[in-house]
Amino acid sequence: HADGTFLTRPLLFAQIYIIFGYFDGFLIPCIYCLTSRQDQVTYEKILNHIISIGYSQLNTRFSPQSLTCDFELGSINPAAKCFPNISITACFFHYSQALWRKVQDLKLNSLISKSKTNNNSWSEEQRKAAYIWFSGAIGLALIPPSHVESVWTNVMDEYIPETPLAQDFNDYMAENYVCQQSSRYSIELWNVFTNIQQKLPRTNNAAEGYNHCMSTVFPPHPHIYEFIRCLKDEHEYQHHKAEEAQVHKKKRKNIYEKIDAKLLQLIHQFENRRITATELAIE
Predict the structure, then answer these.
(1) Does the chain have fewer CB atoms within 10 Å around its N or its C terminus?
(2) Residues 33 and 13: beta-carbon distance below 8 Å
(3) DSSP conformational letter for 99
(4) Residue 53: count of CB within 10 angstroms of its CB
(5) How far apart are CA 173 and CA 153, in angstroms?
(6) Going by CATH, does the domain composed of 2-90+203-245 fall within 3.40.50?
(7) C-beta separation of 151 from 140 below 8 A
(8) CA distance 180 to 187
(9) What is the rounded distance in angstroms from the CA atom of residue 149 to the CA atom of residue 138?
(10) What does the angle CA 151 – CA 176 – CA 201 come to, to the nearest 5 degrees?
């Protein structure tokens, strides 16, 4: 996992870019980078420096298997370049948020809402179809990547709301996510089907949660010397947490366990041909 944070950075820098390790449910911050820019060149320099340190000081060849991050191509592209075999997944929560923001921009949120409030111009049947249409768009991230394009075609054919604004949303999906050959983001980047199967995180929320906790320990925009002192204390605390991770399995909230179990159950039904790929996306 990797994420940037801003409130706790010394004002000499643009951000603190943090790279985390993931072990048996624990997310452990491993590398803190103070950067003056947030561009592709900077992220590539960071990763090449990490690789160099691995070789020269640790006699280790860093070869991470996976990376979960935000939809920031400036950091995604260097990771793919420096680690050709890495599997990169963009945060499912951010994907869902982006789709909902687009719906709001198009003033379609009242149509998609299950509530009857402010929906007088739309019949219950139209609202239901629109809700399935949007649910299908979100659900594309949860089905096998090879089915994404055909499933979205099915959803558009069956459930698209009768308004020109809905076509604007469909165009947005095609331009950014769904068309394998031309979309801004590849299907493999934002699809989390494999993460579900392997019981890996689907979001970068834990990294963002850590950044929030960090802001309660570090003063806002500390002097560089104060920042270093706080970072030393934080490193010692995280070192103890890393040792704990080797002894105690992290207990997840029951609601997340239920969500994971439901998703795996639906995938099992799909693999046994009890539901279609389109039904899997909608459910």
Answers:
(1) C
(2) no
(3) H
(4) 13
(5) 11
(6) no
(7) yes
(8) 6
(9) 13
(10) 75
Distance CA 159, CA 174 (A): 17
**Under a CB-based contact definition with an 8 Å cutoff, are residues 51 and 63 in contact?**
no
* Position 120 confidence tier, pLDDT thresholds 50, 70, 90: low
This prediction has a pTM of 0.91
Tokens of 202: 């689907």
Residue 107, sorted as left (phi over 0), alpha (psi -120 to 50) or beta, turns out to be left
Distance of CA 57 to the CA centre of its chain: 32
Look-up: residue for tokens 């010397």? 225
- Residues contacting 208, CB < 8 A, separation 6+: 3
Model confidence pLDDT, tens digit, residues 52-110:
999 999 999 999 999 999 999 999 999 999 999 999 999 999 999 999 999 999 999 88
The answer to whether 210 and 16 have CB atoms below 8 angstroms apart is no
Give me the count of residues in the chain: 283
Query: Which of 195, 172, 211, 220 lies closest to 90 in space, CA to CA?
Result: 195
Domain with CATH 3.30.420 in the chain: 2-90+203-245
Q: What does pLDDT average to over the chain?
A: 93
Q: Which two tokens stand for residue 167?
A: 């076509």
pLDDT tens by residue, 142-161? 999 999 999 999 999 999 88
Q: Which amino acid is at 281?
A: A
